[in-house]
Amino acid sequence: MKLYLRIYILFSVFVFFTSCKESNQIKQQKENILVEKRDAVTPDGPKGMVRNVRQDKNGNILIASFQDVFRYNGKSFTNLTNNIKSPSFWDVLEDRKGNLWFATKDSGVYFYNKKTIQHFTTQNGLPSNFVASIYEDKAGNVWLATGGGASRYDGKKFRNFTTKDGLSSNAVTSIMEDKTGKLWFGTRDEPCYYDGKKFTAFKKINGKTFYNVWSIIEDQKGNIWFGGSILKDRKGEKGDTLVLEFGLWRYDGKTYTKVSNRGTSIILEDKKGNIWTTGAVKPNGYWVLSRYDQKTLYDKNPKVTEIFTLKGMGMLCGILEAKDGSIWFGSLAGVYRYDGMTLKEF
């Protein structure tokens, strides 16, 4: 039996994207400030699902979990969102001014300047209250990947970009700026880039259509890496059923190369040039943290090391290389740190 549309567990949470409304109007934000009383210091880290892991300029680890956002200083955890009720957090970002941004599944985004928290939603200009990821470009603009398009915040107002502007899909999953200044967008359909004037979509890989792109990075050599799937076939037993081919692709500016058939939800390049990914080995399969050896990346069959395997109904999420070279990654049960020798669960 063919493998029909079986988006493994990470992707299922994006289904509600299809119900998100489109909006490309520029709106002035309204003041909506919550006074932050006090951060809560605790020896315990996140107990639930960790969606992403980052590092601030002081070397602290920032952890976005469904329950709360935590800061880890190497000894204890500080809950940064203990006064925010209900939201499921998907991402965290420290901008160049030291402010923190918290993305949520259905409550928009929170802005924390270490004294107060400001809350932005569709009422303040966002195209959707689902914010999958946050990115700061070289100019200092903060970009939000949302369920209703991409949103750029310049410190005063939001400017939203949707399919009406040329974006390939309003269900945006990731954003990345390359060395030339192009902004790349991963979406539920094709990836695309924005050169400041127009969007250009990548509709085909070797004659096949992109369907889902969950992660995009640029490596040290200027190659663009995509994690997601392409449409192999539309033939099904009942109706227009999609048959997908998952994998990891590399784009050198001219051609695409499929590096692996493994499902890829997150991609990271470390300082040595190795490529790290999280994803299912195959649809509905077990999840793996994998490392692709930089010495064999351009071989027909690059060397892949499975660092950590999570079997059963598990999932692995965001990846971070910390300043000390250790690798941090999230899971359904919390966060892990790998120092090259041992794996520690928090």
UniProtKB/TrEMBL annotation:
The entry's keywords: Kinase, Phosphoprotein, Transferase
A Pfam family this chain is assigned to: Reg_prop
Keyword Calcium among record annotations: no
Keyword Cytoplasm: no
Gene3D superfamilies for this protein: YVTN repeat-like/Quinoprotein amine dehydrogenase
InterPro entries: Reg_prop, WD40/YVTN_repeat-like_dom_sf
Superkingdom of source: Bacteria
Annotated GO MF terms: phosphorelay sensor kinase activity
Matches recorded under PANTHER family: HYBRID SIGNAL TRANSDUCTION HISTIDINE KINASE C, TWO-COMPONENT HISTIDINE KINASE
Name of the protein in its database record: Histidine kinase
Organism: Flavobacterium potami
